C-alpha cells in the first residue's frame, strides 16, 4: 500500500495535462472550442476499452504488471501529444492516449481493496487520494510555471512522471498471482455469476457514477474555458488546481473526525450538495480570488465523496473479480468523458459560463437526491454502512 501511494504521488506530480488539453488544442493548434470538445470526446470514448482491459489484466496478471504496462503506454502517448504539429496529429495522439490512459486504474484500486479490511477501505482510499492531492499541490505550481512558457512541456513532464511511477512500481511492488473467482460468486445468481454486467447493484453504481463523472469533468473542461472567457490567464488554472489539492490534503484529518464516514450514502449525499454549491459559484466568479473561494467549496464536496464509491464496489465484488468490478464501475468516467466535453463546450458556446455552471450544479443536486434510491438498490446495511 505504501509503495502504491508513493508511486501514484510521483505520477501525480505530472498529472495536470488533461485540463490544459482543450486550451492547447484551441490556442496552439487553432481548433475551435466546439472542435476541441469533439477531440476530447474521442479521447473519452477510447478510455472505455482501456479500463476494461485494465480490469481483466489486473485479475489475470496482478497489479504490478498491469500498472507498469499502463503507465509506460500513457507516457508514450503523452509524448505523442507534445510532438503534434497539426490538429490531425493531435487527434490521433489523444485517441491513443485514451486507449492506454485507464489501464492502471482498476489495478491500483483493486490493490487497495485487497490489502485492507472493509471497514478501513474508505480511509485507505482517502489516504491514497490525500497523497495524490499533496503531490497535486506541486503539480499545480509546476503547471502554472510551464503553462506560462509552453503548454507542450506539460505533456513532456507528465510522460516523465509516468515512467518514474512505473519504475517505482516495478522495483518495489511485489508480483502476485490474481486469485480465482470463488465458488459462491459463480453459483449465486444475485451476484450475476462471473460477469459484473449481470450484477444489478453494480449497474446502479455505474449509473450514479456516470452522473457524477459527467458533472465533475466540467472542472477540467468548462473551467479552463470559463477562465479564458473571463479574461484570466491559463496559469490561473494551475493556481486553482493547487488550491484544490491543498484543500483535499488539509481536510483529511477533519474528515476522519466526523460522523459522516460511518455511512457511505449519507456522506455522498452531503458531498454532492457541497460540490453543487462550489460549482454554482464558478458561474458567478469574475476574479481569481472569487474562483479560489469557489474551488475551496467544491473541493470540500470532493473530499466528502472520496473513497465511498470505490469501497461500495469493492464490497460488492466476489473474490477474484475486484479488478473487473472496479473496471466496470470506472467506465462511468469513460462514458462521461465522451459526453462531458461536448456538453460543456456546447453549453459554453450557446449559453455562456453562468448558465453552464448553473446546469452543472443542478446535476450535482440531482445526484444528492438519488442517494436514497441507491441505498434501496444496494440492499444491505453491511454494504452501505461500514462503521
TrEMBL record:
Any one annotated GO CC term: plasma membrane
Predominant place of localization: membrane
GO molecular function, one term: transmembrane transporter activity
Membrane-spanning ranges: 87-104, 125-147, 153-173, 202-225, 231-253, 265-285, 291-313, 325-344
Membrane topology value: Multi-pass membrane protein
Claim: Transport is one of the keywords in the record: yes
Key words, A-Z: Cell membrane, Membrane, Transmembrane, Transmembrane helix, Transport
Top-level lineage group: Bacteria
Ranges where the Major facilitator superfamily (MFS) profile domain occurs: 1-379
Localization of this protein: Cell membrane
Keyword Lipoprotein: no
Protein's recorded name: MFS transporter
Organism, scientific name: Knoellia locipacati
